[in-house]
Design a protein that fits this description.
2 strands, flat
Length: about 60
């Protein structure tokens, strides 16, 4: 557990605002489509976000 905590703390120092894109996918939308939609909303390219997280709560199971 302490190893995991140390890894998380190390990541917290590396992640900066504007580098993480978190998207809630719409029904029937692929992860790639959701990322592109959100990046356009920020007027940036999807490639400018090193970390991309897509949350899909549709269907029988939630996916990350």
């Amino acid at each position: 557990m302490s190893n995991l905590k140390a890894r998380i703390e190390k990541l917290e120092d590396r992640i900066r605002p504007g580098t993480v894109l978190i998207v809630l996918a719409e029904r029937g939308e692929t992860s790639e489509e959701a990322i592109e939609r959100a990046a356009r909303a920020w007027r940036r390219s999807a490639e400018s976000f090193p970390v991309k997280i897509v949350l899909d709560f549709h269907g029988g199971a939630a996916k990350l």
